[in-house]
Amino acid sequence: MRARSTWALLAVSLLSAAAIAAQEQMTGPPPVLAIGLEEINPGSMAAHDKQVVAYTALFNRANAQGHRLGLVPVSGDDNQVVYLQPYASFADLEATRKKTDEVFAASPALQAELDALDRQTGSMHATQKTLIAVYRPDLSYRPVGPAEVGKSRYFTMSTNRIKAGRTNDYEGYVKQYNRAREKANLNEHSAVYQVITGAPSGTFITLGHNRSLTEWDDFTRDMHARNKAIDEALRRGRGQAAARDGRGDLRRQPIEPLRPEPEDQPRPRRGRRGGPRLLDPQGRGQGPGRKEGNEEVVRVEGRAKARP
Fold first, then answer.
1. What local confidence, expressed as pLDDT, does residue 189 receive?
2. Considering the entire predicted model, what is its pTM?
3. Burial (CB count within 10 angstroms: exposed 0-12, middle 13-18, buried 19+), residue 166
4. Which is more confidently placed, 291 or 192?
5. Cβ-count burial of 283 within 10 angstroms (0-12 exposed, 13-18 middle, 19+ buried)?
């Protein structure tokens, strides 16, 4: 099986009380997730950040429904902003967007302010994309609910693009890998989403979270023992490993309440030539084969954003 994987680490400063309240009805990962990407033109990030404050204030004043988790780079592309918007269902997604449109349509003053902000920020964006994904509990490993996520400061994101006709192989590998992690009793958590629109077929996104980067110190220190346990559990299944071609980022979530409407995702990078490397669904390497891809980790700066 061949897969192209993008690995990212994203960070949060503080989950807003409004966002937590909106997700308290969910006991696990949201069934539907809108994932957005904005590419900001080089040199425009500072000006764009100032407009974020205005958008957030406008949407909060309008009491628009829905919430958005805005994530800015810690590593990788410093001009790339990622957004996560949770929904209970597709009906919820449709209703939320409809009510937001109605709120602005009913107020000429709010609509005029929104149009003005759109004109000011339009030239700052190189691209804006949105993809919509559904939660795959069968591919996830010990996923946590909103309460635990709300305590996290950093997020990891791994994007795997599977070659046509090999999706079943990929799913089989992830399930096998999770069985190995369960057998090794690893204290890790991941939620897997399958993209159904906005990206090529066979695109899977795995989200993880960390309260602090000190957890990475623990992971690095225990990596040898962890990988040994995984290798033993996967001894008969190494042939199902995914080949990786990826890139790493680090981002952070906003402080203010986020009231959306979506728009906007990370991307792959070529690695060194060599054989396939076993990956966990969070993009962290282990097992046999040559290493492909590089990860970068740098400092994070977070911003709230209500709308690109």
1. 92
2. 0.72
3. middle
4. 192
5. buried
- In the chain, where are the structural domains located? 3-252
- Token pair of 279 as six digits: 């990956």
- Is residue 175 over pLDDT 70? yes
The residue whose two tokens read 């795997």 is 160
> Which pLDDT belongs to residue 160?
92
pLDDT at 306 over 50: no
* Two structure tokens written together for 212: 């602090």
Both tokens assigned to 243: 């080949």
Q: What would be the CATH architecture of the domain defined by 3-252?
A: 2-Layer Sandwich (3.30)
- DSSP labels for the chain? -BEEEEEEEEE-S---HHHHHHHTT-SSS-SEEEEEEEEEPTT-HHHHHHHHHHHHHHHHHTT-S---EEEEEEES-TTEEEEEEEESSHHHHHHHHHHHHHHHHT-HHHHHHHHHHHHHHHTTEEEEEEEEEEE-GGG-BS---HHHHTT-SEEEEEEEEEPTT-HHHHHHHHHHHHHHHHHTT----BEEEEEEESS-TTEEEEEEEES-THHHHHHHHTHHHHHHHHHHHTTT-GGGPPB------EEE--SS----------------SSS---B-TTS-B-SSS---S------------S--
Residue showing tokens 């979270």: 209
Compute the residue count for the chain: 308
